[in-house]
């Protein structure tokens, strides 16, 4: 039953995210598409900072069901906020499935999706194993680990704010800068993981570099697939989720071969560097 509920929750999350991104860009002028999508994605960073600790606290104050009931309440509140807060718009013509599928055949679009998958895996692999690195290598007290993890979420919020503004004007600058930043910071995390004075600010900066990428990725998708925003937006969400899903595969392969836990950050750096040729190809390709 738990597996079924997780599947349903994931389906609802992906569907909401896709529609939310399309709705957001529909409320702004085209030159603000990346910033609008960045605002939507910023909700993810807020959840990253507050969701885990809040769910744990609720479960401690009640029982294991408390966190789930909290999700129910927040979901209902979000539904009410959407119903009340979104401005009324004229009904749009139903999208043409044939037209959207034709747009989805553009090679440049799939290049951006590949960039999304690799870049997401690049920073999430370090984040997913960060608690283990902090406890086993850095030697940070267990009570301080959640606070350091929260710094990544705070950095993500900053990165989204900065990235949204840069991506509207220079999307490829944001993409290259974010990818290089993730690569360099991942390498620092791998090499200097034993030094808390280095690790703590690196975690914050990694959050910034990682989430500078996201508004630019969304912006490129909607620029290339302007005629198919719904399907393209939904596929973007799938690309993000695929990148997240690949992180345990890459990490488990390295750890099973006997690599130390810091090796996951090296993998993240390599994945980040692998996105740069794709970004440059997209920049130089003809529309």
Automatic annotation (TrEMBL):
PROSITE patterns tied to this protein: MFS (PS50850)
Annotated GO MF terms: transmembrane transporter activity
Compartment(s): Cell membrane
Chief place of localization: membrane
Top-rank taxon: Bacteria
Spans traversing the lipid bilayer: 6-27, 67-88, 109-131, 143-162, 174-192, 198-218, 230-251, 263-281
Domain spans labelled Major facilitator superfamily (MFS) profile: 1-286
SUPFAM superfamilies, alphabetized: MFS general substrate transporter
Keyword field: Cell membrane, Membrane, Transmembrane, Transmembrane helix
Record membrane topology: Multi-pass membrane protein
GO cellular component terms given for this protein: plasma membrane
Xref: Pfam families: MFS_1
UniProt name for this protein: Major facilitator superfamily (MFS) profile domain-containing protein
Organism: Actinokineospora fastidiosa
